[in-house]
Amino acid sequence: MRVPLLLVAAAGLAVWAVHSGRITFPPQWNPWAPLDVAAPPDWLTRYKLERTVADPALCRVALQGTALAHTEVEDNPTEDGCGWSDAVRVNDPRFAPSFTLTCSAALSLALWERHALQPAAQRLFGEPVARVEHVGSYACRNVRGTAGEGQRRSQHALANAFDVVGFRLQSGARVSVLRDWPGEGPQAAFLHEVSEGACRFFKGALGPDYNAAHRDHFHLDRGPYRICR
Fold it and tell me: What domains, with CATH codes, occur in the chain?
């Protein structure tokens, strides 16, 4: 038993040394370094995102370092499973009209837009996405579309989810989840790529392959369960 105990003690000492600053690593190797949205995502990005859920101040600092236009909003006390806390108002023209979203979900949105959405658009269309078309975030309602889940509140009821229905490119061309997902051209390839990319930054990323209720949109959330379909 001595060897495992020594290993545990050594690991604990190493964690303490790094956390206290007695040993320093480059930010991308340090799990306690603030999340830098501009930096290429790596194996610690998901962990740093989780830290922002538990630390609203850390989330706000990280969100300030993004290009996502937003303003802070007051908490809307949760009653009957609906309401929000630690949220922001996203008033970015690329995501108009504006909507309320938890800080951690907004941070995931900024990461997805920068590291998945825009690179895919440039590679497949040679131009950026000018606007993400959506049907909002907050709605005081239950989960729908799957039998047996009707009594459970949706992440939308906590302003912790965002539904995307399409994308408008800089040229004005439109990519629709409902129309283009089943196809075989660049529009379909784009939709599948950005859907997979959402799994890197959101806890829940559901689309047309999940069920009929999602045939026309991507549901993106920072809920407690990890599910990508």
Answer: 70-228 (3.30.1380)
